[in-house]
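Structure in, sequence out. Go:
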């Protein structure tokens, strides 16, 4: 059938009809909200490079959990700022470490909140790398031993999901073995299976106080030019026991999100990272863009590319806007 019998604009003519035939739906239930937790009391300190995102002390987390429940955001992912740093990142697996305290507080406040933990070493080490360093090299297998201690401590504190992000070979298998060996077989693994050595992480490194003190992370995070390698990484993590996969960053890598989605049947997350967030915030502050429209369009794009879950610093604002739009 040809024009004028076929007029695609008919389905766009009324806002209610547009909503009825919309192919992709965006909901607060899709969001995972990152939280940066720190020691002290009454800490609610805005991160300069990430307007609207805060360092929070433990006593602030109950109110945060309650707000997320009201907004119907189902999950958080925790990043901890330790009291002290050392070569092994010891507070990362301490019984009363900052993330372990945060897990317990959040679960006490909102038991149904899914508490996920970032499992890496960069925030905790004095050298800022994601693993054990010896003679200027990041050691893969020695790092796995530490990650096993970390996930067991997080699970013991009540974490629902652990999310290894260091891009160490074999990390998912080692973590699965540690969890199962300590009777935490019900704790899920959301693997940062495809994490690129991206320039979009700058504000996060400010927030987490985790820039490397020498070199860079290109020897373990992925080359931004590679897609086939992303599928190999994801395939290995699936074989090792990952329950969910992640692509990070999101917006500059939507083609990778789609390729991973089309190749694997596991739930797929995408991380709308700090640089992506801060660019929108900066442009909106100057009146160059409509923040609400750009944020929702961007998140819809990530969902449309194939992500089931979106880690985003926009989560609370986006949830409010979606609730208003849906009445």
């Amino acid at each position: 059938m040809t024009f004028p019998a076929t007029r695609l604009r008919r389905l766009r003519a009324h806002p209610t009809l547009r909503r009825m035939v919309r192919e992709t739906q965006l909901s607060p239930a899709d969001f995972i909200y990152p939280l940066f937790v720190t020691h002290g009391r009454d800490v609610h300190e805005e991160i300069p490079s990430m307007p609207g995102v805060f360092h929070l002390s433990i006593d602030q987390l109950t109110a945060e959990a309650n707000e997320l429940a009201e907004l119907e955001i189902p999950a958080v992912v925790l990043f901890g700022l330790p009291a002290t740093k050392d070569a092994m990142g010891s507070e990362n697996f301490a019984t009363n470490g900052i993330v372990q305290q945060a897990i317990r507080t959040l679960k006490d406040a909102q038991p149904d909140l899914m508490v996920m933990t970032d499992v890496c070493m960069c925030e905790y080490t004095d050298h800022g790398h994601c693993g054990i360093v010896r003679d200027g090299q990041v050691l893969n297998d020695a790092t796995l031993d530490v990650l096993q201690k970390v996930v067991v401590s997080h699970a013991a504190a009540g974490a629902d999901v652990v999310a290894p992000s260091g891009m160490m070979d074999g990390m998912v298998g080692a973590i699965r073995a540690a969890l199962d060996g300590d009777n935490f077989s019900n704790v899920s693994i959301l693997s940062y299976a495809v994490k690129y050595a991206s320039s979009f992480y700058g504000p996060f490194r400010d927030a987490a106080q985790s820039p490397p003190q020498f070199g860079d992370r290109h020897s373990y995070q992925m080359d931004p030019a590679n897609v086939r390698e992303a599928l190999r990484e994801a395939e290995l993590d699936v074989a090792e026991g990952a329950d969910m996969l992640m692509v990070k960053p999101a917006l500059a890598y939507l083609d990778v999100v789609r390729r991973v989605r089309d190749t694997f049947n596991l739930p797929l997350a995408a991380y709308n990272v700090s640089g992506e967030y801060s660019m929108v915030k900066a442009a909106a502050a100057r009146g160059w863009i409509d923040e609400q429209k750009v944020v929702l369009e961007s998140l819809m794009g990530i969902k449309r590319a194939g992500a089931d879950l979106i880690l985003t610093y926009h989560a609370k604002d986006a949830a409010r806007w979606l609730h208003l739009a849906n009445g």
